[in-house]
Amino acid sequence: MDQFRPETTDRTQRRAGAVAAKRRLLLGVGAAATLAAASTITAAAAQDRPRAREAGVKIGILAPGKDNAITDVPGVRVGHATLVEGATIRTGVTAILPHPGNVFQDKVPAGFFVANGFGKFMGSTQVQELGEIETPILLTNTLSVPEAAAAAIEWTLKQPGNAKVRSVNPIVGETNDSFLNDIRARRVTVALANQAIESARDGMVEEGAIGAGTGTVAFGYKGGIGTSSRKLPPTLGGYTVGVLVQSNYGGVLTIAGAPVGQILGKYFLKDAIERESADGSVVIVVATDAPLSDRNLERLANRAFIGIGRTGSPITNGSGDYAIAFSVHADVRRTEAVRAAVASTASLGNDQMSPLFQAVAEATEEAVINSLFAARTVTGHQGVIERLPIDRVRAILRRMPRD
Q: Does 282 fall in a domain?
């Protein structure tokens, strides 16, 4: 078994510099005091909270893309707006933009899948009906879905070329961050959500307690935003699959096949009594440059939950577990001209889907682990959620038998 193999610190330092630059850009988009202003990430801090691969955890058989992020898919951008106020507000918004153009006019095919429907995923029925996305995808907390939706609508209406638009289907996913965040205060505003959209950039994606992941909890530890990607070899098309998750769920934490949660003594159903609960939610956003139909994108979204299962989730009754997948490939883009005519589009057949299924399962699993590795200890509304003890996790993985 070769899951434990550290990468060089050069990559860590490069990531830290890119993340710090992105945070400076974010802080420049107004209302800086409400954003992630606690501190600038330094190389030393990034080394203290390495990503899974930088800590030596190798997941799967396929290689990641350049930045091992959803933004490895060409044109995809991610932005965060983080809200930390006083001792009780720990929340935010994360935005994913499928391409740099007018998403409403140049819609992208999409598929949606529900593993357990205890949640409020706005816009999902129209995605299921029409198989397309026409706005940025926003993630936030459960009671701030209306504000995030309003931001997506306002942003769409003001785009050049949308002066005659009379109906918009905003896409908003959520998880409940009410342990660390005073969710009833409803402090997320339309302006804050709009900052997440406006700050969206390509390249490195900041992870952990940032944006929509600021107040989330996963497996009893601090969860958050995580991302990863996989690039198929040229013989399999050379396509990229990127994943971003908002982790806020539980179970028996498993990392690269190791029963980490059991060994650390924090897991669902421990002693069959428990304060520990596996309920919560996870939202998965999948992007690819493979030319896929909305039907096969739904199948791709479905397979993302293989990765969630590998992290140790039984997909419990009280968890809202959703995945949405879209393709940016030009041949399947639903432009105004395409929508107005009898369309003939080139897309991959069913027999070519299996490598993409492997890619999305691996990338989803690693995105969740990255969300845990990147997160820091957070004190909030109802108490403290500790960060995952990475040194102990690495020690556990070193002791695991190797093939």
A: yes
In degrees and rounded to multiples of 5, residue 139 shows phi and psi of -120, 140
Which member of 144, 321, 347, 371 is catalytic? 321
* Residue-level pLDDT at 39: 32
Whether 2 is covered by a domain: the verdict is: no
Nearest one of 247, 267, 387, 262 to 319, comparing CA atoms: 247
Query: Among residues 178, 228, 247, 281, which one is catalytic?
Result: 281
Distance (Å) of CA 96 to CA 70, 115, 133, 235, 285 = 9, 21, 12, 29, 8
pLDDT at 135: 98
Within a domain: 4: no
Active site (annotated) includes residue 289: no
Domain that holds residue 64: 9-399
- Annotation says 247 is catalytic: no
**Residue 273's pLDDT is what?**
37
Q: Which domain CATH number covers 308? A: 3.60.70.12
What is the structure's pLDDT at 346?
83
Which member of 229, 319, 327, 347 is catalytic?
A: 319
Q: Which two tokens stand for residue 393?
A: 């996790």
Q: Left if phi > 0, otherwise alpha if psi is -120 to 50, otherwise beta: which for 165?
A: beta
For residue 321, indicate whether it is catalytic: yes
